[in-house]
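Marked as duplicate of an earlier ticket. Keeping the data here for the record.
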Amino acid sequence: MTALHRRGITDPFPIQTATMPDILAGKDVLGRGQTGSGKTLAFGLPTLVRLTEGSTAPKRPRALVLVPTRELAMQVCDALEPYATTLGLSVRNVVGGMPFGRQIDNLRRGVDLLVATPGRLNDLINQRACDLGDVSIAILDEADHMADMGFLPQVRKLLDQVRTGGQRLLFSATLDGDVDKLVRQYLNHPVTHSVAPSTAGVEEMDHHVITVSAEDKLDVVSEIASRDGKTMFFVRTKHGADRLAKKLGQVGVRAGSLHGGKSQGQRTRTLNQFKDGAVPVLIATDVAARGIHVDNVGLVVHVDPPADPKDYLHRAGRTARAGESGTVLTLVLPHQRREVDQMTRKAGVQPTRTSARPGDADLASLTGARRPSGVALIAAPADSETRRHPRNAGPRRGGTPGRDGASTSSSGGQSRTRGYRGAGHGSDLPRPRTGSASPGRSAAPRSGAPGSARIAGGAVGRSEAGHGRSGSPRGRRTARSY
């Protein structure tokens, strides 16, 4: 309680009030709560209390939390570690993209509560670095997302190895489909606590759908990104995230991209820079939409409308967390309106609907949008590792498949060119307007023209896109400088 009070936590959230007594009593529990409702402490605190009885052997954790993504694993670990330390317990994570050696060393020293992604944990078990035979409390967090990502076979394999008759806890925003099958197979007479509907009924969250033209979309996004405060933009693909971060940098907006194609070091650094405000704009694929908590995200923007209501709710849940307020904006092209209207109805959302163009006063009033400076940034602070010269790119040049469903693009020209030419390949952002510039030449910004940021972005974009083979070396170097 002292540790909680020290962090300003004095009253439990509803999901915590509902589930903690049953978890402390050793019952199997199903918890459904809106994202941002406090599920981590709901299962974490009583689990730690129960672990104070007994001791942990090397390589044999006594409690296990399975999560779908690396970021969520590290977030759960960070959230629980202060309270574990208070009780004399250890919490560690094992995730892909990090050195095996350090994780193996932690397991050898003994880990009371292990937070893991399924793939890496299975690898460690196969290497005889971990044994789940002593796990008496097994927890599935964001179970519906694990099902969506195809992790359930690995999850079942892991649950089959934990101690028979132990406690099982499952927390998720939704409890249907494959998750229901998992519940029936592994949980014993579970107590169900549902403290929120499976729709976005968050009173502190405002929802808006804004129709924009294909020609205006990039400029509208740039103006929104120039607002004060933390903003999250969601796009469909990894390449779309990287490309939009680059375009915003070219008009003076510091932005980082987060997706499954980046190394864990890059992902961690980008997220930390967004958390501490060094990079106020985070552009992400749906890998970041599940469970990631960042304080004071005031605005979430669907640059590419999500594929289904679940994705909408989880993206939207990055704002208005833990009692805060926030705004959710969906940008739609005219041909997307009917599809988005159907999706928001299924999500239980009643957004306001309007249209916008760059410089609109209503857009500024709603989001704090303003014209970007138009002064290109020299380097993107979060993505320096990805800007490798093509000569040094090696086999990564063509990209490799990643979790987000698109190939991982390097800074080499081939994969970037394919995505840039076709708007549908990466996102719905069109190629910026470039005036009358000829291929391979930069169009000079018109002095004082409202579209100057647009023109600057388009000029560099043309050089990137591979149209500048006959252009000057200077133009190509400029294209790579960001």
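See parent ticket for discussion. The chain has three domains: 2-194, 205-367, 384-480.
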